[in-house]
Amino acid sequence: MRYRLFGQTGLRVSEILLGTMGLGEDARQCRRVVDAYADAGGNVLDTASAYGNGEAVLGEVVERRDRFVIATKYTLSRDAKDPNAAGNHRKNLVLSLEQSLKRLRTDYIDIYWVHLWDRHTPVEETMRALDDVIRAGKVLYIGISDAPAWVIARANTLAEWRGWTPFAGLQVPYNLLKRDIERELLPMAEGLGMSVATWAPLAGGVLSGGSKRVDPKTLTERDHAATRAVRKVADELGATPAQVALAWLRSKSTKVLPLVGVSSVEQLTENLAELTLPGELIEQLEGAVEFELGFPADFIAECEPHPFAFGDAATKVDGR
Fold first, then answer.
1. Which residue from 194, 212, 270, 286 has the fewest beta carbons nearer than 10 Å?
2. Which InterPro entries match (predicted)?
């Protein structure tokens, strides 16, 4: 296992993150998976306040607290009947954090994620409240999940101007079938130096072909085309479809950190295997599944080499 720096911080995180939502209520199985992950060099355990009893189970099984980077999230409702028990405002942040600290049996959270953009809470309130809990020593680093690029860019710009702690990470869905983040979110993260933790890297089991949750009747022709392409490459390389799907993901950007969810040590071992895809196989995979960046990315790419847009030196300027 190799390590990456988390955003523009000095925090070392393993190149594959472990999502614990699927480990459920089984503390014994959770302990086996966490131990196997740690033995392989993994150090990031990702959970959330809304993952049932997940935080409490994780708090029960983690023994070497200082060796792990524990990440959890807030935003989603703690009490459906209480209007202030959800959202990104200060009240929910403080109460959710205290609840998570107790469940996880820890004095601090390494990475605290905003779970979902709350359009009713000013981003200034969220960023200042997050900076306060960092200054109090209850949180070390922050990230945001499932939000528009413009919101994140504005939040980090405000943090920079006002001396607050910026988001170091972004958590979003990303896989061969769902490449939406390549339009705005991934370029933004790369531009701001943010790490990108990608959930659903196997498209909910569609790309691995091994999930019992996937009903074949619900799969589209696009889904089938992707699975055929992944299986073909896997057969050619003597790998599994899951390994190919994860290798494709990791080839897209050095900022990408796949967030894998498993239910057994066997699944974990499969997902941690090292695999590098040749360029021609990456093209083969992407050619099997139609995807367009759309406007403005495609339009800008078309304009860049033309003298009409950038003068006679348009094709003579080397990029950064």
1. 212
2. AKR, AKR_Detox_Biosynth, NAD(P)_OxRdtase_dom_sf, NADP_OxRdtase_dom
